[in-house]
Amino acid sequence: MVYFTFDSANSNQQYIQITASFSTKSAITFLQLPSWRPGRYELGNFAKNVRNFKVFDANNQLISAEKVTKDRWEVNTENTDAIRVTYNYYANELNAGSSFLDDTQLYVNPVNCCVFTEETFGEEVEITINIPAAWEVASSMEKIGEKWKVKNSEEFFDTPFIASGGLQHRTYECGGTTFYIWFNGEVKPDWDRMLKDFEAFTRSQIEKFTEFPVKEYHFLNQIIPYKGYHGVEHQKSTVILLGPSYAVFEEFYVELLGVSSHELYHTWNVKAIRPIEMQPYDFTKENYSKLGYICEGVTTYQGDLFLLKSGVFDLNDYFKELTTQLQRHFDNPARFHATVAESSFDTWLDGYVPGAPGRKVSIYIEGCLLAFVTDVMIRRATSDKYGLDEVMKQLYFNFALQGKGVSAEDYQSTLEGVAGISFQVFFDEYVHGNRPYESILFDSFEYLGIELLHTPTSVYSEGKLGFKALQTENGFTIKAMFPGGPAETAGLMLEDEIISINGYHCDKELNKWLKYFDEDSKTLTVRRAGRMLSFKLPEVNRFFYNTYGLKLMEDANIHQQKALRHWMK
Ligand SMILES: [Zn+2]
Fold first, then answer.
1. Residues in Cβ contact with 18 at an 8 Å cutoff, skipping those fewer than 6 apart
2. What domains lie within the chain, and their CATH numbers?
3. 287 Cβ contact partners less than 8 Å away, ≥ 6 residues apart
């Protein structure tokens, strides 16, 4: 048995006091802090938050712990059969995957603040949480008396908890599982509406998979007073961060639904159906995989689609979400240079920052659009009998429940088995290649009787001159340029600050000034790293940065109508 104690005393310093006990069998024991957390495929460098790291033997004598890597300690355990470790963890970051301590809550994601030993990794973990008497604990951990328990360290690392005096919750039952919805922070939940919607998309997802992997599941919502939006999946729970408080049941309710349905789908896809390279997780280093387009892409596609299938969204709501993905895809020129498979591999390099312009694509966006195309390809090949749902169900039963990870070949052969056609060209050209998506998207939408609309953007600088600019204190800064567009051809650079147009300071009205001068006589003066430079923009007779949209075809034929009905079911 492994023991952990978390103490919320001295919360104003935001250091969680952590004590852990492990049995030892070897002369040398390595204590390791995970170097990343599942759900975010980059190194976390969590050890930067650790101070006062001390190790004691079975007789309570301090023994030496030598740091051998950034997050690994070597302990001489020749003369002891157990060790106790104490340290403080700085918890001042509040997001869906972090740990946080203040006067209102102790929020812990054990994966970023708890050490483990290889020898005891499979042992049960008993957890003690020392908090003010009035606080409650929201978590999927099993409560036994005053303590909490999880099966082993892997489950421990997948089991966050929120201890707080401001928790509220409700439950609902679906498919034999009890679902808890928790809120922490300032929020006034519209429980009736929420329970109805959550039950609907939960039921819809379970019906397709035929069973839910666990008997108890917790939505742990951290509501913040400022803007924020993201979630992290776990096997028996999810943490969702959303704000500001006043918008959660107003204009951001769609986001709450979207992220909740997405995280629930992860219970099957990622928490159960897992890339072979991450089966099991190696918490000591990068776990490279090219399958992010399945993990996040299929989940992004299905998460929203289940809101439509369950009636929580109508087609217009759904089109809005899918249009956002389409717009982001077409706005990112990296699609001409990078493949979704290599961008998945590279999340470990710079997957969660903007990075070098035009260098990488998103596993969420490209993955979602490819999942949509895959779904329609299967439907077309099977006369609407099967879709991507059937593939994911088979991966769940034939791989996840057998304890097997999924490889790229497994995914492809399962797809081909369900569809009865080859997907080789699709994988070569769109997953491992960067052939433009236009034709497969138009084709897929047309099969469902949906029109993919694209019109030139009404923003003059984007549509006619091929650059996006952000207003700053002094004027406008160029943030993106369309490859081969007038701005790029003229020699402008990203981060150039536009000072004037034909000698006139553009102030706050960049587009009005740009439109005012004739097509063939626009000279932009910019400030570039302290120098003032002027560029004449060439005249080009084409448009850049289209605006995308979706609508039902008015003259859809009977086959398209039938395909749409099946796809939405
Ligand atoms: Zn996700």
1. 4, 5, 6, 7, 86, 87, 88, 89, 113, 114
2. 2-164 (2.60.40.3650), 166-250 (3.30.2010.30), 268-451+554-569 (1.10.390.10), 460-537 (2.30.42.10)
3. 36, 41, 277, 278, 281
Between the CA of 288 and the centroid of ligand 1 the distance, in Å, is: 17
3-state secondary structure of 371: helix
| C-alpha distance across the termini of the chain, in Å | 47
Number of alpha carbons in the 13 Å side-chain half-sphere of residue 137:
22
Distances 387 to 260, 392, 446, 509 between C-alpha atoms, Å: 23, 9, 16, 49
In angstroms, the CA 78 to CA 82 distance is 10
Q: Which is nearest to 498 in space by CA: 488, 510, 489, 486? A: 510
Alpha helix locations (H) across 62-190? 110-113, 153-156
Q: For the chain (length 569 residues), average pLDDT per consecutive 10?
A: 96 98 97 98 97 98 97 97 98 98 98 98 98 98 97 98 98 98 98 98 98 98 97 98 98 98 98 97 97 98 98 98 97 95 97 93 98 98 98 98 98 98 98 97 98 94 96 90 95 96 90 90 94 94 94 98 97
Q: What pLDDT sits at residue 473? A: 82
Q: Which of 197, 196, 201, 195 is nearest to 183 (CA)?
A: 195
How far apart CA 453 and CA 163 sit, in angstroms, is: 48
Q: How far is the CA of 362 from the centre of ligand 1 (A)?
A: 12
Confidence at residue 475, expressed as pLDDT on a 0 to 100 scale? 84
320 contacts 393 by C-beta, under 8 angstroms: no
Residue 50: both structure tokens together: 């650790």
Contact 65, 53 (CB under 8 A): yes
Residue 118 Cα to ligand 1 middle (Å): 28
With beta carbons less than 8 A apart as the criterion, state whether 202 and 183 touch.
Answer: no
**Six-digit token string for 223:** 């509501």
Report how far apart, in Å, the C-alpha atoms of 547 and of each of 51, 257, 361, 445, 486 are: 51, 25, 19, 17, 19
Question: How close is the Cα of 123 to the center of ligand 1, in Å?
Answer: 29
DSSP class of residue 532 equals E
Under DSSP, the state recorded for 80 is -
Per the CB < 8 A criterion, the answer to whether 180 and 138 are in contact is yes
Q: How far is the CA of 8 from the centre of ligand 1 (A)?
A: 30
Render 298-362 in DSSP notation, one character per residue: IHHHHHHHHHHHTTSS-HHHHHHHHHHHHHHHHH-GGGGT--HHHHHHTHHHHTTS--STTS---
CA separation (Å) from 82 to 33, 78, 85, 316?
18, 10, 10, 61
DSSP one-letter code for 126: E
- Please give the distance, rounded to the nearest whole angstrom, from the Cα atom of residue 56 to the centre of ligand 1: 40
Whole-number Å distance, alpha carbon 488 to ligand 1 midpoint, is 35
Distance in angstroms (rounded) separating the CA atoms of residues 223 and 204 = 26
Lookup result for tokens 């390099």: 349
